[in-house]
């Protein structure tokens, strides 16, 4: 079971939190909070503190309640897949641990497993994080449109690659 169900409470004691994450074997941390949020939460040096504790830190700020644009999501998912390929224990967190982080985790499930539907991904995350996982209509719609957006992106990338190779 994860050490801290509400990341926002852990951030207040982020040194203790970092040590606890180490005890769980976490090696990489994906932080989805904006720098403004980190400052507002009085942890402006959180990213540096994580690095000082030996974590590989990926900072991909997404405003609270929002969804990333597809280019940003693609970068995050590629980095997450790399973490998984190297069997690194990885934490994804935002401020509340329900909206942005659950959205990224759900998109990763959809990308990794063709047999998983958006609703199944959402249900899995709600089983783990509670009924508040995926907090806004924008995030919910993004999750349900993810595969269509991914297919369009792949098609566009394929067309661009072919036109460059000519």
Automatic annotation (TrEMBL):
Ranges of residues in domain Tyrosine-protein phosphatase: 1-155
Tell me which EC number(s) this protein carries.
3.1.3.48
Q: Tell me which residues make up the Tyrosine specific protein phosphatases domain.
A: 74-141
Class of the enzyme per the UniProt entry, highest EC level: hydrolase
Task: Check the record and name the Pfam families matching this protein.
Answer: CDKN3
Instruction: Read off the Gene3D superfamilies from this record.
Output: Protein tyrosine phosphatase superfamily
Q: Hydrolase: is it a keyword of this entry?
A: yes
Provide this UniProt record's keywords sorted from A to Z.
Hydrolase, Protein phosphatase
Q: Write down the InterPro entries for this protein, in alphabetical order.
A: CDK_inhib_3, CDKN3, Prot-tyrosine_phosphatase-like, PTP, Tyr_Pase_cat, Tyr_Pase_dom, TYR_PHOSPHATASE_DUAL_dom
Q: Which domain of life is it from?
A: Eukaryota
GO molecular-function term, one example from the UniProt record: protein tyrosine phosphatase activity
Q: Where is the active site?
A: 94 (phosphocysteine intermediate)
Xref: PANTHER family? TYROSINE SPECIFIC PROTEIN PHOSPHATASE AND DUAL SPECIFICITY PROTEIN PHOSPHATASE (PTHR23339)
> Which family is annotated?
Belongs to the protein-tyrosine phosphatase family.
The identity of this protein, by name, is: protein-tyrosine-phosphatase
Species this protein is from: Anolis carolinensis (Green anole)
User: What gene codes for this chain?
Assistant: CDKN3
